[in-house]
Amino acid sequence: MTTEDIALIHDFLREDLSPEQRELVNQRLEADTDFKAAFLLEQQQQQSLDENDWNFIQTSNFEELADYEVLYKSEKTNRLKESINTAATKYKARGTNNRSNKWALYVAAAMVILMISLFSILDDKKTPQELYTVSLNVDELPGLAVRGGTMDSLLLQAEKLFNAKNYENAIPLLDESISLTDRNIGTLYLYKGVSHMELNQFEKAEDSFNVLIESDLYDAKKGYWYKALLYLKMDQPDIAKSILITIVENDYFNKDKALVVLQDIE
Amino acid sequence: MIDRSEKIRIVTPSKIKVYFCLESTKWMKNNLKYLNALLTEDSTEILNIYKENFSSVQNFVIQNNGRTEDAEDVFQKALVQIAVRYRKEKFEIKSSFEAYLFTACKNLWRRELNKLKRGVTSLNEMEHKDEERDQALALLEQKRWELFMDNVSLMTESCQKVLKLFFAKVPYRKIVEQLQYSSETVVRQRVFRCKQKLTEMIKRDHRFNYLQNL
Q1: What confidence tens digit (pLDDT) does each residue in B35-74 have?
Q2: How far is CA B129 from CA B132, B141, B213, in A?
Q3: Residues A32-40: contacts with CB within 8 Å, 24+ apart?
Q4: In the predicted model, what is the mean pLDDT of residues B151-166?
Q5: Do A57 and B137 lie within an 8 Å CB cutoff?
Q6: pTM given for the model
Q7: How many other C-beta atoms are found inside a 10 Å radius of the C-beta of residue A61?
Q8: CA A239 to CA B145: how far, in whole Å?
Q9: For the residues A133-152, what does the mean pLDDT come to?
Q10: Which of A87, A161, B8, B99 fits A166 for a cystine, CB–CB 3.0-4.6 Å?
Q11: Could you tell me if A52 and B64 are in contact, meaning their C-beta atoms sit under 8 angstroms apart?
């Protein structure tokens, strides 16, 4: 294949040719087997590595395909599917107050902006924003209300607003709670920090996490994890990386996840 | 912009590699634990896989035009795909199980979105009968994707950057702006060289021979 042939294939796949030029390429594909072979390989790469596309297999008669089909139809795979269904059912039925169910309902209104690409796939590399999205798991946050506590109604309301992603209205209640109590205050700062973070109020988010980190509260070290996520959201992976290293070195909260994120940043 | 430069620590890549070395044994143990759970149909351990991983997949699918039901579907399909593939070829998961599972789910969802885009109808009776074949095809497509991705990851950072934009069909003039090349001609030459190298590497890959005929 000449350089011009490859350039022509690239332009065809990138839809940079006129209808007449495309027709000429189609005609050549019919007549020139070498050109077609080169075209197919370029097309496979383009469709695989374009995050908005997918490369579907065209061949139907292929020994390995038949082998996999047999495995998919096997009794062992059917049993596996049943076990997965059992696990899935238990997972979904973890409780009506389970925050993850509420989170799933409201995540469609997620504040994370899908950046340069929806699927950052080169080298399995995710953008900092994607890393933020997949790493932030509010299930890890404890509930706010303590049964029998005097501030239950205030805390419940704050938690409800937080779960509904109504951060602007949750924050004043969280601030009020912080001013009124010493109990559960570490968790309150986490809720506050995450709320500010989701609203892209980065300085206020960092302030909340820093208060927690610098305290002697039981949850203090959790602040590092969320601060690392904050810097991912701010698209500053180098700073996030340094915080994640601190987590790993000191065996802080979410050390294992910090390692995974570090690998993705690398 | 918040200036936190005074708080940046100097982190050497070697430090990170040490941690990976120490933790890779743990990853291998976890990978084997989860693979074993799938191979032995251990619903208790599979529930742990759900607890650790489902929410991030769910977030991703919902943020990409999907619903919770779609996330449940791709999650289950990904678990079955991993198990079926391992039963046939005992392939190595080179990252953590969590990272691999997330990527498998991401690709399965990407595949579904493109099926819809290309006008493939949603499940009807005929498709349902061929579901195993469809999943077998998805598995082979995943393997081919890995062939391409593994070779892209071996390229220089500058090639990866320009190819990322190239495959995203970003106009050449915008690639000039984003990567600060001097002209479109220079970009085209750079793309050509990087693409040529990528294609050569793919053809030399031992997996190319049997995947090229798909």
Answers
A1: 999 999 999 999 999 998 999 899 889 888 889 899 999 9
A2: 8, 20, 25
A3: A34/A1, A35/A1, A35/A5, A38/A1, A38/A5, A38/A6, A38/A9, A39/A9, A39/A12
A4: 93
A5: yes
A6: 0.63
A7: 7
A8: 32
A9: 75
A10: A161
A11: no
The CA R_g of chain B, rounded to the nearest whole Å, is 21
This complex has an ipTM of 0.82
Per-residue confidence (pLDDT) for residue A88, from 0 to 100 = 95
Contacting residues of A for B55, CB less than 8 Å apart:
100, 103-104, 137, 139
d(CA B62, CA B60): 6
Chosen for mutation from A48, A125, A163 (greatest number of chain B CBs closer than 10 Å) is A48
A135 contacts: CB under 8 Å, gap ≥ 6: A229, A232, A257, A261, B56
Give the angle B63-A56-A29 at the CA atoms, nearest 5°: 130
Q: How far is CA A189 from CA A24, A153, B144, B147, B162, in A?
A: 64, 18, 46, 45, 42
Q: How far, CA to CA in Å, does A94 sit from each of A89, A90, A99, B50, B168?
A: 9, 6, 10, 12, 41
- Verify whether the Cβ–Cβ distance A82 to B64 is below 8 Å: no
Nearest Cβ partner for B84 among A72, A110, A124 = A72
| CA–CA distance, B54 with B100 (Å, rounded to integer) | 13
